[in-house]
Amino acid sequence: MPAIPSLGGLRGRGNGRARVQPPIPVPLSAYVVDCAVYVDGKRVPGRWTHAEAIKEVRRRREGFVWIGLHEPDEQQIQGIADMYGLHELAVEDAVQAHQRPKLERYDETLFMVLKTLRYVEHESPTTANEIVETGELMTFLGRDFIITVRHGAHSGLARVRQDLDEDPERLKFGPAAVLHAITDHVVDHYLDVTAAVEDDIEEIETRVFAPRTMVSAEQIYLMKREVLELRRAVVPLAAPVRRLAEGFTRLVPDEVRSYFRDVDDHLITVSERVANFDELLNTLVDATVAKISLQQNTDMRKITAWAAIITVPTMLAGVWGMNFDYMPELHWQFGYPLALLVIFGACLLLYRIFRKNQWL
User: Which residues form a coiled coil (predicted)?
Assistant: First the structure.
């Protein structure tokens, strides 16, 4: 009979506690979306590792490297960090994500964080659970390299890379031109997302002020939460973009700074839109609460009016229902029809009064 494998290899022999197995190493290539060398604005043919690429550029003493990473872990990005001289604090932020948009300088390297946005399609803003989805995009900018680290499924840069590959004149300005193209792409997408959100808010506004429709205040608060996500992505980015446009570092040449001014103008437009969204939603919340209060007051008036009408026949029926021998018209032949007529007349009179006063 074959021996049953022992668990001794999985458990500690001395103290009986389970031994923690090291994680299975994942090759860096699993996280690298693309690694390219650019010389004189043109992509150098061939497949490159991060080490080979930077060695080639520094051997030529011209050009730069563009490496794109998607959600790497700390162990895998450490090799690139050591080779390219990235600061450990910036590397930690790039791996963990959940950062605010910012721009920081570490020695001869810039670290920039951008929030990406995606508009979530839905049938109606009054029934949607999510309208805006966010992601993150980190960039390391050096003299002869740019490294992008993406978090989120919708923050791809394939279109940006393709457009730049077709425009060597822009790439002649170096990695700063790539940083501008990425920032411009992100901010232009902000414009598209805010335009779609604006349509949703206009639809909610139409429903709020429609005469016979009701929008719950909870749904408007959901929209305010989504607008808050927009604000967290847009507003903090204004200062980094402005610093790049004003010559914050020599890594961004003067020819590229002017392009960042254009991005700054677009970002101001987006910021103004987001601020207007928040003000409009506050107004819609107030209008919704007022409309609900008015509807409740109208319902209470109707209930009160019907209660008053019902009280009349109840009172008269209670009086004539008493067992007394000497009740008026108790033994009269027309007493019962007369009682019904009095009840009906009193109810009709009250109904007309309430209708005239718009209680019914």
Answer: none
